[in-house]
TrEMBL record, chain A:
Record's GO cellular component terms: plasma membrane
Membrane topology, record value: Multi-pass membrane protein
Gene Ontology molecular function: transmembrane transporter activity
Keywords assigned: Cell inner membrane, Cell membrane, Membrane, Transmembrane, Transmembrane helix, Transport
The protein's name in its UniProt record: Autoinducer 2 import system permease protein LsrD
TrEMBL record, chain B:
Membrane topology note: Multi-pass membrane protein
Free-text function comment from the UniProt entry: Part of the ABC transporter complex LsrABCD involved in autoinducer 2 (AI-2) import. Probably responsible for the translocation of the substrate across the membrane.
Presence of the UniProt keyword Protease in the record: no
Keyword field contains Plastid: no
Main location: membrane
Name of the protein in question: Autoinducer 2 import system permease protein LsrC
Self-association state and partner proteins as the record states: The complex is composed of two ATP-binding proteins (LsrA), two transmembrane proteins (LsrC and LsrD) and a solute-binding protein (LsrB).
Transmembrane regions listed in the UniProt entry: 55-74, 106-126, 133-152, 172-195, 228-246, 252-273, 280-299, 305-325
Source species of the chain: Deinococcus aerius
Keyword list, A-Z: Cell inner membrane, Cell membrane, Membrane, Transmembrane, Transmembrane helix, Transport
Subcellular location: Cell membrane
């Protein structure tokens, strides 16, 4: 219970920071809180936000997937290649999603069947999948996607300023939140992350759960790849390069513990938005990208360091109080 | 929490070392095979110039791998090395721009100390702030790179800004072996002996194998962790100076992505990501193997685009084989102790 309160406190802090960043942006520029600016800002978060959902689940079971951005790039390249070879778009999209699930499945099999650490496995597949993306497209870019589909990428819900990819994200975030926080499957993730041996003895099929999560992570990265391709109307092998760090930074900043067993969808989503809003606020006043990079890094470190230091101060105070009570 | 089987027989250390040696032997055999096959297809691959370039390319990675290995042995990781390399390369270059007369050894010392300072930030966060190394060094990967971008501000250091003795140091050679390679080799051997035979070096293994046991045995874990990260930073800083000397041109993106190559080399070389296992000999061989594969692919005219995929597949193969071998050894040891 105490742990739940502590983690909710963290999420409230992050949400508070989002509001502060929004207000700060409004003070910096009157154009900041306009619907069109916010819409643009939020649309830029789409891919990271999508991949953060499944990354949250993986980190809760104490695994990690560094290959997400490479799967994004590979799927984007595959989509371009299929389209360029005149494969009908619906079929191409299905094949791309299948490729993503397959890529995630390979990660999952290596982790669960061979018992390899996911950090090492996904460093390998990070290179492998990005390499496959380059093998498919080289340094070509494929851009002639039909407008019906690119509209899905940078269009809004008709009559609103809500970008379509974000609408998709909201639906998936709700599903993820319900699955994680209100189903037996979701509860089992916390159990596995908190103590895998105990979870195994309790009859949970740890390997199968992890394999499912890796497949979902691959599937979500493929979806992010499709969104990326349509949003920029460009399939390139280097699409999304380096995004894995943004995704992991957001998940950890959102209060999901790297040691597993702790975290929530709300926290991770709030952290994605915090990074995005700060990004937007800083760019609107022409603060360069470098400051944003520094801020992201400091936020990430601070999100773990500050609670640690506070806990230590509290412990020291309790110890002193105890000593005072026992004379001599 | 996964507990690896701990064999309790007296014969186990011998077998364990034999297995590790076998692993390094396998890597060397693979290396020789690769060199021979590529050389047979294209004799120019084994030409002096080609081998020289190969060694120069591997030298800087191999150097950073030394620090990374020390950190990995303690079951930590240092993702920030690429940013440290980039930042020290540019700042050392700026030092030459500001004071053209600065002696080369002094500039090297500057890069080394700067790296040590950056490493001490990581060390403090991990040892005393109790921030997991993955989070701490992912954070500083961003922060150091951001600082680099802010300082560089679109500028560039060119070979024209650098003193001739500095550039000559990188390109010069003794008996045909580039200075850079000799220097890195000397450092690897020095650190190898330290890790293998000195109390301080063994403590890194002890911490990675079982932190509580190491604490009970009187190891000051926090101080050792701090030292490990400072060493990793200092070595990366020195690698930044060598990067500048080797390439002459440095902008804000220098060294980006290096951390993954470094970790890959260490892991291929048999350094366990779970701590406590691995040698510098193996890690260095791993770096060399990845480098040779890279340039063999170029020589064999494999499209450059396939390289990354092949390197990734190789890394996966290496760690998979390693896991299977370790499992088989563990089983054999268990059977042995039962008999």
């Amino acid at each position: 219970m105490k742990q739940l309160r502590a983690s909710l406190g963290w999420e409230a802090t992050i949400l508070g920071l989002v509001v502060l960043a929004l207000l700060g942006g409004a003070l910096l520029s009157p154009d900041f809180l306009t619907a069109s600016n916010l819409s643009f800002l939020v649309a830029n978060l789409a891919e990271v936000a999508l991949m953060a959902l499944t990354m949250t689940l993986l980190v809760i079971v104490a695994e990690i997937d560094l290959s997400v951005a490479s799967i994004l790039g590979m799927c984007s390249s595959l989509l371009g290649l299929l389209w360029a070879s005149h494969v009908p778009m619906p079929l191409a999209l299905l094949l791309v999603l299948g490729a993503g699930a397959l890529a995630g499945g390979l990660n999952g099999l290596l982790v669960t069947r061979l018992g390899l650490p996911s950090l090492a496995v996904t460093i390998g597949t990070l290179a492998l999948y990005r390499g496959l993306a380059y093998a498919m497209l080289g340094d070509r870019a494929i851009a002639d996607f039909p407008q019906t589909y690119t509209n899905l990428g940078f269009g809004n819900i008709p009559g609103t300023q809500i970008p379509l990819p974000i609408a998709l994200f909201v639906v998936l975030a709700l599903i993820t939140a319900v699955v994680l926080h209100a189903t037996a499957f979701g509860r089992s993730l916390y159990a596995i992350g908190a103590n895998e041996v105990a979870a195994r003895f309790a009859g949970l099929r740890v390997e199968r759960v992890k394999l499912i999560l890796f497949v979902l992570s691959g599937l979500m990265s493929a979806l992010a790849g499709i969104v990326f391709t349509f949003r920029f109307s460009s399939a390139r092998a280097d699409n999304g390069a380096g995004l894995e760090l943004s995704v992991i930074a957001a998940v950890l900043l959102g209060g999901v513990s790297i040691f597993g067993g702790r975290g929530s969808v709300v926290g991770a989503v709030a952290a994605v938005f915090l990074i995005g809003v700060i990004n937007g606020a800083l760019t609107i006043v022409d603060v360069s990208n470098e400051i944003l990079t520094i801020v992201t890094g400091l936020l990430l470190i601070g999100s773990v360091l500050v609670p640690n230091l506070l806990a230590r101060v509290r412990a020291a105070r309790e110890r002193r109080a105890l000593l005072r009570r026992e004379p001599g | 929490m996964t507990t690896r089987p701990h064999p309790a027989t007296s014969a186990s250390p011998g077998l364990m070392t034999r297995l590790l040696r076998a692993r390094e032997l396998t890597l060397v055999a693979l290396l020789v095979l690769l060199l021979a096959v590529t050389g047979a297809i294209n004799p120019r691959f084994l030409g002096a110039q080609s081998l020289r370039d190969l060694l120069l390319n591997v030298a800087i990675i191999a150097l950073v791998v030394v620090g990374q290995t020390i950190v990995l042995l303690m079951r930590h990781v240092d993702l920030s090395v690429s940013s440290v390399v980039g930042l020290t390369a540019f700042l050392t270059g700026s030092l030459f721009v500001a004071y053209p007369g600065v002696p080369v050894p002094l500039a090297m010392l500057f890069g080394l100390l700067l790296g040590a300072v950056l490493g001490s930030v990581n060390g403090w966060l991990v040892a005393y702030g109790k921030v997991p190394a993955l989070v701490a060094t992912l954070g500083t990967l961003y922060v150091f790179r951001g600082v680099d971008y802010a300082i560089v501000h679109g500028r560039q250091i060119n070979a024209a800004n650098l003193p001739a003795p500095f550039l000559n140091f990188a390109t010069g050679s003794v008996l045909g072996v580039p200075n850079l390679v000799l220097l890195v080799l000397a450092l690897m051997i020095g650190f190898g002996i330290y890790l293998n035979s000195y109390r301080g070096g063994r403590e890194y293994y002890a911490i990675g194998s079982n932190t509580e046991a190491a604490t009970l045995a009187g190891v000051n874990v926090n101080r050792r962790t701090m030292t490990g990260f400072i060493l990793s930073g200092a070595i990366a800083g020195f690698a930044g100076v060598l990067y500048l000397a080797r390439y002459g041109t440095v902008d804000a993106t220098a060294g980006t992505g290096l951390e993954l190559q470094v970790i890959a080399a260490a892991v291929v070389g048999g350094v366990s990501i779970n701590g406590g296992v691995g040698t510098l000999l193996g890690a260095g061989t791993g770096a060399l193997l990845l480098g040779v594969i890279g340039s063999a692919l170029v020589t064999l005219r494999a499209p450059a685009f396939y390289q990354q995929a092949i390197q990734g597949a190789l890394l996966l193969l290496a760690i998979s084989v390693d896991a299977l071998l370790a499992r088989r050894t563990a089983r054999r040891l268990q059977e042995g102790s039962r008999r």
